[in-house]
Amino acid sequence: ASTLVVGEHEEGVLKASTLSAVAAASALGDVSVLVGGFGPSVHKAATQAASAHSAISQVLVVDWEKVKHELAEPWAELLLMAQEKGKYSHVLAASSSFGKNIVPRAAALLDQTVVSDVIKVVDEHTFVRPVYAGNALSTVKYTGSGPCFMTIRPTAFPAGQASAGTPAPIATLDTGTIKSEAIGRSEWVGQHVQRSERPELGSARVVVSGGRALKSAENFKLLETLADKLGGAVGASRAAVDAGFVPNDMQVGQTGKIVAPDLYIAVGISGAIQHLAGMKDSKVIVAINKDADCPIFQVADYGLAADLFQAVPELIEKLPDKRQVSA
Amino acid sequence: MKVLVAVKRVIDYAVKIRVKADKTGVEMNNVKMSMNPFCEIALEEALRFREAGKASEVVVVSMGGPQCVETLRTGLAMGADRAIHVSTEIPLYPLAVAKLLRAVAANEQPQILLLGKQAIDDDANQTGQMVAGLLKWPQATFASKVYFGDKNDVTVEREVDGGLETLRLQLPAVITTDLRLNEPRYATLPNIMKAKKKTISKLTPEELKVEIKPDFKILEVVDPPKRKGGVMVGSVDELVDKLKNEAHVI
């Protein structure tokens, strides 16, 4: 099998989710990584990709103004063109907002189905994926004639070691032949991106999440202090996002981010199934909630029925200081 | 301007699903079914377009067995003008749904095709993107705000991993809805009564000239591994001790 992994980078640094996608693809065989964007950052990301994993045999770099942003229309055409050239058996991306936006569009253009959010590669065409917010696991078999399109859940595939060998060759893809009436009918206007010094929510070793019981945006600072003490990221339940305490990109759950850190601390979160879907694969779960009957305690390894406004400051005080960048 | 909204019938979001003992799927008998919550949001948005004078007609479409009609009735009771039922007993996966939707869109010629970003049963998150590709229309997925421009365009704010992103699309376009776009209304009793008189037209995949060829098979459905029951601790000191000396995570 030969797989095309659609890479994502931010200012020239490959995202952790892309490294997970490469790790998943390496189980299928030979890997080519497509890195797209506009300007010097693309080439920087391509250089990193060339040594990102020993399974990578080629890096395809696309320096094209149309794919400077994550617009699905040019990206889908680009995938199509790359697939035509490389005739890969699989096309794979992380199930990030980027991958989910682009992969199905490209697949449909080739009359192909998509296996989304794969958590396990059983064999070349058999995969396990969660359904019903992770309350069931479905084993599915792709029976088409290829290529097999899929997105993978990054938390299920730990990124491999960077390759110490010779970097994979980098080839430039010419986008001159790409024509589609859909390109140009969408335009990127702007973005509102949260910048944080903390590790990325999806790949942090420790995640501290808050729910509606935090009562205000101001009170989330308490969780930030706790997260900083543990070198972790801050997440939130849907209720906390809907109440306007924190922005949408902090939501953990079925429709938000899926996290699986070593330590997940749920503070003032009752534990709706949609939230559990986003965090129940965490290694150790701690729940702090006033209500001893709430469902979060059923999945928590350690539950503390207490007022968070007393317990969290006490926890901050008593935790050993591990202020560090998550590795 | 016409808006077409695709809706799916799923197990109600509040139901705790049960995996069948024979591993062929989840128990569907005697289980409460509802319109997929993201589809409700899509329909609500379309109704608001009409109420704001931007849309003249809201058409709901659903595909599958005869039970879909119930979901379409719910859509009509919420306020949709008419409904289309694409009737088939063949299990439908996103690509097939996208092809059927393309055919319906070709007949109906809507300016906006609205869908939920995902269905809460298979959590696939594909259909909107696929149909946009097939129609060669621009797409804005995971929408949290939609504004109409004055040049036959819409501006869509979308929820992405890093925060929010804004796109401008020329119509016709496909928009898929995220949670925070709006809060769907409930159907009132008078509207439920009125809905009974609204039209639900029936089409088949053959009539739409869509061949459904599955390239995807579900081999088995099982319960996820259960987490072992944990312990309650009595104090913060005990918690810190456990995390340090038992779980070794701090």
From TrEMBL, chain B:
Keywords: Electron transport, Mitochondrion, Transport. The keyword Cell inner membrane does not apply. One of its GO terms (biological process) is fatty acid beta-oxidation using acyl-CoA dehydrogenase. SMART domains: ETF (SM00893). It is found in: Mitochondrion matrix. GO terms for cellular component: mitochondrial matrix; mitochondrion. InterPro entries: ET-Flavoprotein_bsu_CS, ETF_a/b_N, ETF_b, ETF_beta_N, Rossmann-like_a/b/a_fold. PROSITE patterns: ETF_BETA. Residues 23-212 form the Electron transfer flavoprotein alpha/beta-subunit N-terminal domain. Pfam families: ETF. The keyword Transport applies. GO terms for molecular function: electron transfer activity. Its main location: mitochondrion. Belongs to the ETF beta-subunit/FixA family. Heterodimer of an alpha and a beta subunit. The electron transfer flavoprotein serves as a specific electron acceptor for several dehydrogenases, including five acyl-CoA dehydrogenases, glutaryl-CoA and sarcosine dehydrogenase. It transfers the electrons to the main mitochondrial respiratory chain via ETF-ubiquinone oxidoreductase (ETF dehydrogenase). This is Electron transfer flavoprotein subunit beta. It comes from Marchantia polymorpha (Common liverwort).
